[in-house]
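Title: Request for sanity check on Fungal-type protein kinase domain-containing protein prediction

Description:
We are preparing a figure and want to confirm that the structure record we downloaded matches what your pipeline produces today. Could someone re-run it with the sequence below and paste the raw structure tokens into this thread? We only need the token string, no images.
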Amino acid sequence: MLNLNLEATLSSRPPQLSSMAGTKIFMAIGALLGGPHSFMHDLESFFWVLFWICIHYDGLNKKGKVKHRIVSKYEKWNYADEGELADLKKGLMVEEDGFDKIITGFAPGYKSLIPCVQELRKYIFPNGKC
């Protein structure tokens, strides 16, 4: 049964989405800094999701539940404001040697993805530029 008393008013213009839509820890650095959206932000967001999974999860336990790892170094990402989070992420991307040390901390089940993550990083952050 329809309730015609609950009528929605539609405008001729679709509602505008916030440029800050999404889970902050997975957002691109440029998006965190309020820059205009580009397709590279989407690719960078994928990179951060993959990075987060490789650091924080280690497959399934014997009961079929996801094994979580607490990595205190990245815990503050959950609470940082946009500018601080952008700076934290930039700090990871500046030097390739530094990033290579970080990814050695991937969970054992994701170590095989290290070459893929390194290659993806080179395309998203050429010469360590953010």
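Thanks, this matches our download. DSSP finds six helices and two strands in the chain.
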